[in-house]
Amino acid sequence: MTLAGLLLLLCGAFAAWVYSSKNSEEVAFMNRVRYEAGAHKGADFCGSCHRDIYQQWRNRSRHAVSVSAESVRDVIRNLKTHTILNYALGGEDMCYACHGPKAENAGVDCETCHGPASGFASIGEAHAKKFKPGMESMRKEEFCASCHEIPGFVTPYSDWQFSEAAANGTTCQSCHMALVEAGTAYHGFDSFVLDEQIYDGDLGLSDIRLEFPELHLTIENHLTGHSIPAGGPTRILALEVTFSDARGNEIHRDRKTFAKYHNLVPLLGFWPYEIIADTTLKSLEHRPLNFSLPAELDGKISAVNLILRFYEVADEHAGDIGKAHYVSKPILEKRINSFPRTGANTG
């Protein structure tokens, strides 16, 4: 190694030490395991009896792919390849603190939430002594917050605390684990990546008016419990707007995104340190939007097409949808035709 390379390495190591020292509480919090330790028998074992619940979890649940999703693997790969960064942040164990035990590497499975089934004489004893008594705490709204609330970063629980849903006594479980057949709670934990229709009726576009040189509209979040998108910087909602002429040719396009945007750690250049902008749609928010148009389009716009879709972007890409691991089909689409030259059109 050259002297310059050695000096650069030493500077990086010192910066990592300074960062981890100054942020020791935050780093310790991120690395604190949120679930009960212990060897897992695995979801397949639980599914041998709880077949319907297992299929919901396996086929529909974001929990089931919480370590295999490409956006998560992207973060883990970057941690592994940055020795100094690993030192500063505690390594990839930080990811597994919420995303399920590293030893099993199976995501958030049955035992991540319910507790390990090992250590009992029989599965019947495990149910009697652990699982059934544990249901009381699992029905409390703060149970979900152990992973789904990182102050100032991932905040669906605190969003809920100040929402109409909380005021009405509607908990996280009331919506996301509603009772299905035989009074069993649903265990799908759907996300837009697995079900693009989960926001049907929850998003709206209204009061669409072309008053050249601006397009005015209102975007609506109809959810009573939390923002859209919920969670952290990984999820991005985009409103894509295209303008067409009388022949149907696209003559202009624009886009607005709704997400949490974050700064990265200076020098190390990776870890999302703080939220610098939060444009997510708050619960029950109706937000007016304006799109400014170039002067040369006056009198040429015949139709406007509006599409809402979701993007999933690994945290280290800081909201860059050009690096998205997943792009959804349109969640909501509206087309407004026959705009007059200088008047307004409402749809």
The residue fraction in helices comes out at 25-40%
SSE pattern, N- to C-terminal: HHHHHHHHHHHHHEEEEEEEEEE
Q: Give the count of structural domains.
A: 2
Secondary structure class reads: alpha+beta
The CATH class of the largest domain turns out to be Mainly Beta
Kindly report how far apart the N and C termini lie: 66 Å
Mean pLDDT: 86
Low-confidence stretches: 14-22, 266-270, 342-347
From the 3D structure, determine the CATH topology of the largest domain: Immunoglobulin-like
The total beta strand count reads 10
Q: Which homologous superfamily in CATH is the superfamily of the largest domain? A: Immunoglobulins
Strand content bin: 15-25%
- Which sheet architecture does the biggest sheet show? 5 strands, antiparallel
Q: Indicate the CATH architecture of the largest domain.
A: Sandwich
* Discrete helix count: 13
What tags apply to this protein structure?
alpha+beta, Immunoglobulin-like, single chain, 10 strands, 21% strand, 5-stranded antiparallel beta sheet
